[in-house]
Amino acid sequence: MSSIEIGRRVFEVQASALQESGSRIDDSFDKAVAMILETTGRVIVSGMGKSGIIGNKIAATLASTGTPSFSVHPAEAYHGDLGMFTKQDIAILISSSGETEEVIRLIPSLRYFGVKMIALVGNSESTLGRNCDLILDISVEREACPNNLAPTTSTTVSLAMGDALSVALIEKRNFQPRDFAAFHPGGSLGRRLLTRVHDVMHTPVPVNSPSDSIRDIIMTVTQGGLGLTVVVTEGKINGLITDGDLRRALYDRESFEGLTASDVMTRSPMTINDSEMFAHAENIMLKANITALLVVNSNGALSGILKLQDASLVN
User: Fold this and answer.
1) Looking at the structure, do residues 67 and 171 belong to the same domain, yes or no?
2) Is 182 part of a structural domain of the chain?
3) DSSP letter string over the chain?
4) 170 and 203 belong to one structural domain
5) What was the pLDDT predicted at 183?
6) Together in a domain, 65 and 171
7) Staple 59 to which of 71, 180, 248, 264, CB 3.0 to 4.6 Å?
């Protein structure tokens, strides 16, 4: 069998296992979500070996989507880290066999502390399955490994179950993109969703009066470096002139002689308040198919220019 065929077979085996596991989700899943929603403590995830690595990811996803969570190595927990648990917490214990010694040894202590336990387990009749409050079935027919030994399909299903819990909790908490950004301020999404228009707008704003000549406008546009100028009278916005407007005006006429700003400007240009989120401004520009927005303050006075290319500043 070629490497390509082997690779495809692994995807097929794991896809089939995921579909089968998804079909087995039942009331226990609903109860697990409710249990996590109701707790005033944290969700602490623990597993050994590859299951522990999956547990790290599950805990990280929960924590970044509004559910306080962290992972604990079961062996280290047994040697002091059990002090991290409180009776308000919920433990998610992961073991495909349900007989992983390091995980099983946690059960008496967690019971003593009053910690509720959710098992991600492949055998409901195992020691882990019989001693936890809820069971989430992660059983698989076989691993993708040809020897049916290396954790492959089972870890994939475990990861998917953790993602399913996280997504259900996102929905139940009505966790929004802005909430996500608050937990990811260093990422591109966080910067975009937390950045306000006044943080990236351009100032000073190139301006002309309605009676200015085309020559005056070209000079202002060139010196401003933004490819546009705003037509203003006594602080009131009359219109917007872009270099595109100038090209279109020249295309339609043989000469600019006698033309003024009021003849070529776009009247009633779109504006946005300087306190709005940049993401909102970006959506406006994309939907309207424009590359610039005039920025106004709370009094409606012109305070800056926002360019669609400024998105690169917050990525």
Assistant:
1) yes
2) no
3) --HHHHHHHHHHHHHHHHHHHHHT--HHHHHHHHHHHH-SS-EEEEESTHHHHHHHHHHHHHHHTT--EEE--HHHHHTTGGGG--TT-EEEEEESSS--HHHHTTHHHHHHHT-EEEEEES-TTSHHHHHSSEEEE---S--SSTTS-SSSHHHHHHHHHHHHHHHHHHHHHT--HHHHHHH-TTSHHHHHHH-BHHHH-B-SPPEE-TT-BHHHHHHHHHHHSSSEEEEEETTEEEEEEEHHHHHHHHHH-S--TT-BHHHHPEES--EEETTSBHHHHHHHHHHHT-SEEEEE-TTS-EEEEEEGGGGGGG-
4) no
5) 59
6) yes
7) 71
